[in-house]
Amino acid sequence: MKISKFLWSVLVALATVALIAPQQVEAIIVDGRVSGQTVFAGSGTITESNGISSNGINSNGINSNGINELDFNGELFPHGPLSVTGATGDFTPFLGSQAIFNLAIRWTGSGSSVTLLDVLPGVGGPHWDAPIVGANGSATGTFFSLKSVTFDEDSLTLIGMGTTQVTSGDPLVQKDSAAKIVIQGTGQDFTYDLTVVTTAVPEVGSTLGLLAIGLVAVEGLRRKIATRQNRYA
Fold first, then answer.
1. What pLDDT score does 188 carry?
2. What is the pTM of this model?
């Protein structure tokens, strides 16, 4: 009996909640922004809504008319899993874990003129989830938009923007941040060995705020020095 992709999505979501929820019944402190980067390794296949065919891919290897879909291969196809092979900063506790995508990534267009599908306002689109192995905590990365997608039968580069959230520590502390999510792959026949890199992006407002505070401090110091020089002139 075939199980529809929608039903698979529901089952994966329930499995993820069952895996993570029991770990986080204690109070969670929301404090700070995520820093660092995490790297996944896995396999994926691109299809079209009607399947890839010689008529669906133009001479540049990119379909610009139909709906393209990136499925993540594995036991929970099309959701993965993918292995967490690299981690820095707040993502370090997740090294050695596995990540699962709740949905395949679907889009229309090509190059920098692409539109991410399955995005809910204020919620986002496809996202990955990963637990900490042997401890409380979880991390997630959510796509909100795509900046560009280029692919052919043996290579893929997908660049997206969104958010990431990390909950870890004792007591549990939740951190949130904007994020850049890049998926690259090489392979053949539209099936690729994938590398998925999620990088926390510093908040521009905070950066500008810190810069402004720094400039005010420098100006204050300059005035103090000028005052002392005038006093002894």
1. 97
2. 0.73
Give the β-pairing of 173-188 and 155-168: antiparallel
158: nearest Cα among 168, 167, 150, 170? 150
| Strand 155-168 with 138-152, pairing | antiparallel
Q: Please, which residues bridge with residue 174 across strands?
A: 30, 167
CA-angle at 171, arms to 36 and 20, nearest 5°: 70
What confidence tens digit (pLDDT) does each residue in 47-65 have?
Answer: 985 444 434 444 344 445 6
pLDDT digits (tens, 9 = 90+) for 82-97: 999 999 999 999 999 9
How do 82-87 and 113-116 pair as beta strands? Answer: unpaired
Contacts of 227 by beta carbon, 8 Å cutoff, 6+ apart: none
Q: Are 85 and 170 in contact (CB under 8 A)?
A: no
Question: What does the longest C-alpha to C-alpha distance in the chain come to?
Answer: 93
Task: State whether the Cα torsion 212-180-19-121 is positive or negative.
Answer: positive
Which token pair is 130?
């990963």
pLDDT for 210 equals: 39
